[in-house]
Specification:
The complex is a heterodimer of chains A (113) and B (107).
Chain A: E1 4-7, E2 10-13, E3 19-25, E4 31-38, E5 42-51, E6 54-57, E7 64-66, E8 76-78, E9 87-94, E10 102-104, E11 108-112
Parallel strand pairs in A: 2-11
Antiparallel strand pairs in A: 1-3, 3-8, 4-5, 4-9, 5-6, 7-8, 9-10, 9-11
Chain B: E1 4-7, E2 10-14, E3 19-25, E4 31-37, E5 43-49, E6 52-56, E7 59-64, E8 69-74, E9 83-91, E10 94-97, E11 101-106
Parallel strand pairs in B: 2-11
Antiparallel strand pairs in B: 1-3, 3-8, 4-5, 4-9, 6-7, 7-8, 9-10, 9-11
Classes of the chains: A mainly beta (113), B mainly beta (107).
């Protein structure tokens, strides 16, 4: 998955703690997004962005904040972690208008205890 | 009802068998992805389709836009093909995912 860098790969948080998942891409893609993957539910869209300064909510946005100050970076913030946010998180980027390949980060396995 | 449905959910095959995974969707799309995810691993895009058919090695993907259906075929399956295969459609600026098909290929 060259081109999309997602960190960290693993994280354990206590309930109520905050953290930021980082996502960066160097392909000049307008589109970036965050998904969570839970057993039996597939990937669900949390937030997405179609360009710097523009963000929008996906299917499951509650408990998460995002910002897009540059084209390259799209961090995902958990302000007060809850056990229900235990999941695997993926960042993706692409140039969807007109159709293009999607590129995914390596994933972050987050456990909230 | 999910906007993207995949079948089967689980698939077991013997090495060498021909595999077909199906994806049906209920929304208008601009393109469709087939993705592969190995256990504990990241997600890799295998194909992006907006019409017709694409082939890459032993993998073939087809799409019928009128019928809102796509298939992923694996010829001469191999244990290293064991993975979860995910169909995802592009709707405006969003990717909407199916729940995936877990494939296990035994030697």
């Amino acid at each position: 998955n060259a081109g999309v860098t997602q960190t960290p790969k693993f994280q354990v948080l206590k309930t109520g703690q905050s953290m930021t998942l980082q996502c960066a891409q160097d392909m000049n893609h307008e589109y970036m997004s965050w998904y969570r993957q839970d057993p039996g539910m597939g990937l669900r869209l949390i937030h997405y962005s179609v360009g710097a300064g523009i963000t929008d909510q996906g299917e499951v946005p509650n408990g998460y904040n995002v910002s897009r100050s540059t084209t390259e970076d799209f961090p995902l913030r958990l302000l007060s972690a809850a056990p229900s946010q235990t999941s695997v998180y993926f960042c993706a980027s692409g140039r969807f208008r007109g159709g293009t390949e999607a590129f995914f980060g390596q994933g972050t396995r987050l456990t909230v205890v | 009802k999910n906007e993207v449905e995949q079948s089967p959910q689980n698939l077991t095959a013997q090495e060498g068998e021909f595999i077909t995974i199906n994806c049906s969707y209920s929304v208008g799309i601009s393109a469709l992805h087939w993705l592969q995810q190995h256990p504990g691993g990241g997600i890799v895009s295998l194909f992006m389709l907006s019409s017709g058919k694409k082939k890459h090695g032993r993998l073939i993907a087809t799409i019928n836009i009128q019928e809102k259906h796509s298939s992923l075929h694996i010829t001469a399956s191999h244990p290293r093909d064991s993975a979860v295969y995910i169909c995802a459609v592009i709707v405006t600026d969003k990717l909407i995912f199916g729940t995936g098909t877990r494939l296990q290929v035994f030697p």
